[in-house]
Amino acid sequence: MNMDNHPLQTLRTLIVKSQSESLSESEIAELNELICSEGGAAEAASLIDQLCAFSDSGRLDSLPMAEVLSEAFSQAPALDRELSGHRDAGLTTASHVTSLANSNETSSTTNAESSRRPDTSSRHSDRWTKAYWWVGLAASHLLIASLAWSFAKPSPTQSTFTNEFIAQHSSQAKPPQLVSMTACVWSSSGDLVPTIGEPISSGEILKLVEGIAELRIGEDTAGEALVRIEGPASVSIGVDGQIGLLQGSMTAKTLGTGSRNVTVDTAIGRIIVDGQSSIGLVSSESETEVHLFTGRVSVEPNQAAFNASKIFLEEGEAVRLSLTSREGASVVKFNASEANFVSARSPGFDPLNIGERYVSAVMESQPSIYWRFEELKGDFPQFVKNQGSAAGMDATVMGSPSWRQYGNNRVAELGTSTSSAFRTLQPWPQEPLDEYTIEMWVKPQLFHHGEVLCLHDVEELEDGRYQHTMMLETTAQHYFTHRLSDSPANRFRFVHRQLGASQPISATSLFSDGQYQARVWQHVVAAKKGDRQILWVDGQLAAERNNPVPLSPNVQILVGQVYPTSVYRRFVGQIDEVAIYDRCVPLEELRNHIKAAGRPVAPENSD
Fold first, then answer.
1. Largest CB tally within 10 Å, which of 27, 403, 417, 445?
2. CA–CA distances in Å: residue 200 to residues 163, 225, 240, 343, 441
């Protein structure tokens, strides 16, 4: 086979195209002519053999392929002449292939996958017969090279080879492209950094450090799907335009109809997704989880590692395939969970219904600053009015925050599309504080490194940065400074330090003992009391340490990003009910606030 030979390349292109759509009359005529040309039958047989080899029953049972083969070869004397030298072997092979075709049709009434296909045999029986007759004759060219290969179980390596050919010669599928990004940080180590709207070439590796990236694959084909990658994750783009999940999490929603529309390769095996289905995947080098939310999906484990046949999932089911040196291969079924996938939840998931009871409870605790975000005041700049006792501490709007309504309660939504933040124009506090409390409701949209709230010096440094005396932020699974490369992943981080002090950053940081939840409201409190630096999450002690440094005075409060003059490290998510106190509010009082919001509070683990 010489792929530089244009006529034969065109022949293969037309056959592959016929897998998913009917050819025009001119294309069928061209295909007929190419088949009858020198070497055409052998080239077609080679491709048909490959297509059969990499599916359970081949794609010859598709209506377009049956139509093409019967039209192309029903009157092909040149083909008959070319095959005359192989007729004996051809008849043997034809008998075998015809038997295989009939067995496929018979088993379709009991096979779970085949039964989903529409029955067209009665309407096109004459064309089916001619198609399989031709396949049998053409397959005689492959007896030495690959007849056994045709009926062997597919392996990952073989599948990649077939996909490579199909991608190189199929013209109907557009390359995958990035259609949206949410707070994405891409690896800068030489891997592809994609651009929205630009096609992504086959063979590319995408490494998403943090954020959510949405890809469209198979546009305008039956295999069209929307794929959302959740950082940190790595995916490969196959030569057929399909996705390979190397590591991390993703969700996929197939938009076409039919069966076996989309494939995802993992280290454990191949995932095959029907049309109108939605799934979630988690994969590493030794384990893959498949969650089926809607539709149908099957899993084909690698035969070299798993002594398991194809696994079918029903809606609401999940399967975990593991392969470890100690325990070997294991397959476990359990209930699917959309909660495991950030991108499967709506940003409106988990409503926060704050009412007057909560407002009264907070006001009884006498905050210096209390921002409710229910409405904006002023013309330009607009601001959120402070309902606490400190004068001049309104929250001035920066950029264009969004707003989300939960019943009668409105919350601020930051960082999802454009730059957005809030800051005070007047400094606070007037004196150093040995005690303070910052209380707020936080709903991160995804796992990322973002500044929820910070207190920074009013003076800008020469390099454009600002010093901070206090920071409350979400962290991600990658290191964000060389000094914190060993920090735990996806935690709330609370920093308290003195402006201008030379103390190491490790002496000022607290990381919550558990991961924060994405798209779920959490009640977060950062507090200082004498020598104690304390972090509470949902009324539970999340972390504490000894830190005698007081809060530096005359600093500015900034919500949503780390510096007032740049969007670096912006927070992506929702916030509400920011309350700041010049004392350490007791934990029991804070737990009463949570109860007043109508949220459950677990038994206290420590004070």
1. 445
2. 16, 15, 12, 22, 39
